[in-house]
Amino acid sequence: MKNDRTLQIKNKYEIQITKADSLKELPDFNKLGFGQFFSDYMFVAEFEQGKGWYDFKIKPYAPFQMDPAASVLHYGQALFEGLKAFKRPNGEVVIFRPEFNALRFKQGAERLCMVPPPEDLFVQAIHELVNLENRWIPKDKGSALYIRPTLIGTEGFLGVRPSRKYLFFVILSPVGAYYSSGFKPVKIWVEEEFVRAAPGGLGQTKAAANYVASLKAAELAKINGYSQVLWLDVTHKYVEEVGTMNVFFVVGNKILTPLLDDTILPGGVRSCAIQLLKDWGYEVVEKKVSLAELQDAYDKGLLTEAFGTGTAAVITSIGDLSFTNKKWLFNENEYGPIAKRLYEEITAIQSGTKVDKYNWIHLVSNSNSTTSIGLGL
Ligand SMILES: Cc1ncc(COP(=O)(O)O)c(C=O)c1O
Fold first, then answer.
1. Number of domains within the chain
2. 271 Cα: distance to centroid of ligand 1 (angstroms)
3. CATH of the domain at 329
4. pLDDT, tens digit, for every residue of 114-158?
5. Distance CA 20, CA 23 (A)
6. Does ligand 1 have an atom closer than 6 angstroms to the CB of 267?
7. Full domain range(s) for residue 238
8. Domain annotation covers residue 366
9. The pLDDT value given to residue 209
């Protein structure tokens, strides 16, 4: 390690930067997939009760050393976020809605009795790390640098109580275009046995626990050729969300989406979709959506489209919703028109070909001047 230096952010935070001895070879940006490769650096910060957040660092990506009694390993205090940075055709680097993720992270941490980093530290840490890792941001349409902020309890003890020490870290992974082989609607399994989240539980957070709870059903669905599951509520009567997406249904001239409650993750792309649809003149209804009313609409030919919203794929058209004893098919396996329009609009705002009138874009650097940390990389 060499060239330690510090970076002052807004006279408030000081980030110590340690330069790597050597940099990794970049992967083939045409074969990225999702979450397979990680950039050269990560951001880390620590928290200790009585001391607050301290030791803000950008340092080479490397394994952590951890007490085997660390609370995350036993009692699951783990929370994460997922957002993306883009390199636009004109060279600008932007992040999509980091303030949204900062707030959701804070709210999730509070639900899990964890201490979140301040929201402005969350955003600035990501800004600086993305700026430093410019060479890791793919340029091709639909590709991005996926950002994974994570918070874990690190105090070593046994006993069920909140940790008094936390580690906040951010890692980066270049990801390929989700639809590199063309727009294909997905097949979704309607999960009528397992449940992901219960009222009063953690469903509205990105707690790691929610994802382990979802694995069994998702694995069974995959074995049977489905890409994800559609979760229902604990009574199996109401629709909640898809594995890593919120869900929308076009019924007649209305667009229905489940009302957010404590069992559903409040998705960032969900709120973008609602905003755009309303601006385009659609009536968007956020309410408890029952399978019975969807069945009725499907039988009458009124349920014409279903789609999911989420950071990974932005908008995903659903071509097939399969239950144990029946199937609903949409758009003859073509991408639904409203899903397509939303996808085009959101990705155009991300890539800068459409004006960002909603303030969703956080600028990291433009083509000729950067706020680069200047490590000479
Ligand atoms: C369970 C779940 N629901 C919904 C979403 C969509 O959220 P967002 O639009 O913020 O990516 C995600 C992905 O983050 C998710 O994991």
1. 2
2. 11
3. 3.20.10.10
4. 999 999 999 999 999 999 999 999 999 889 999 999 999 999 999
5. 7
6. yes
7. 186-351
8. no
9. 98
